[in-house]
Amino acid sequence: MKLRKLTIGDHPELIKLWKRSGLPYKPKGRDGRAHIAREMAANPGLFIGAFDGDILVGAIVATHDGRKGWLNRVAVDPDYRRQGLARKLTLAGERSLRGQGIRIFGLLIHSYNRASLKLAQAMGYTLHRDILYLSKRDSDHV
Ligand SMILES: CC(C)(COP(=O)(O)OP(=O)(O)OC[C@H]1O[C@@H](n2cnc3c(N)ncnc32)[C@H](O)[C@@H]1OP(=O)(O)O)[C@@H](O)C(=O)NCCC(=O)NCCS
User: Fold this and answer.
1) CB 3.0 to 4.6 Å from 58: which of 54, 76, 102, 117, for a disulfide?
2) Which tens digit of pLDDT belongs to each residue from 24-40?
3) Is 116 in the pocket of ligand 1 (CB under 6 A)?
C-alpha cells in the first residue's frame, strides 16, 4: 500500500471512495471539484490517498486555520479495513499539518460512528464530553 498526495485529477476516485465507504459528503458544496481544487491549491499536501496499485482505497483531508488542524473525511474502502490504513492516513495527515507549524489536531465525529471514535481514541485523541459543536450554514449543501 502506498500513500501519496492527491491532486485534483484524483477527485472522481475520491468521490467514488467516499461513496463506497458510506461517508456523507457534499458534492454541491465543499466536496465539489471546484471547491476541492481551490483547497488543494491553497494547502498542497493536505489531501492524502492510500493506493493499492492504481486503486484509491483510502483517503484523508487535513485542513487548518493556522491555529488548529483538523483531520476530515478519513475513509477506507470496506474491503481494506482493519489493516491499519486509517491509522497510517491519520499519522500522515498529522505529519503534513506539523510541517505547516500545527501542533493541535482535532476530529469531529458523529456520536453513532463507533469505528471512528475507537480509531481516534486508539490513536491518543481525547474525547471532550464537555464541548458542544455548533455550526451555522448558508445552505444544506455547503
Ligand atoms: C473509520 C475507518 C476510517 C477505520 O478505517 P480502518 O482502516 O479500518 O482502521 P484501522 O485499521 O486503521 O484501525 C485502527 C484502530 O482503530 C480502531 N478501529 C477501527 N475500526 C474499528 C471498528 N470497526 N470497530 C472498533 N474499533 C475500530 C481499532 O482500535 C483499530 O485497531 P485494531 O484493528 O488493531 O483493533 C473506516 O471504518 C471507515 O472508512 N468508515 C467509514 C467512513 C467514516 O465513517 N469515516 C470517519 C468520518 S469522521
Assistant:
1) 76
2) 999 999 999 999 999 99
3) yes
**119 C-alpha vs ligand 1 centroid, how far in Å?**
5
What is the signed CA dihedral for 4, 124, 36, 136, rounded to 10 degrees?
180
* Whole-prediction pTM: 0.97
Pocket test for ligand 1, best of 48, 71, 77, 82 (most atoms within 8 A of CB): 82
Radius of gyration of the chain (CA): 15
87 C-beta closer than 6 A to ligand 1? yes
Q: What is the average pLDDT value for the chain, to the nearest integer?
A: 97
Could you say which residues of the chain have pLDDT below 50? none
- Percentage of residues in the chain having pLDDT higher than 90: 97
Phi, psi at 34, each rounded to 5°: -65, -40
What CATH architecture applies to the domain 2-122?
A: 3-Layer(aba) Sandwich (3.40)
Which residue ranges make up each domain of the chain? 2-122
CA of 76 to the centre of ligand 1 (A): 8
Whole-number Å distance, alpha carbon 86 to ligand 1 midpoint, is 6
The C-alpha cell at 28 is 454541491
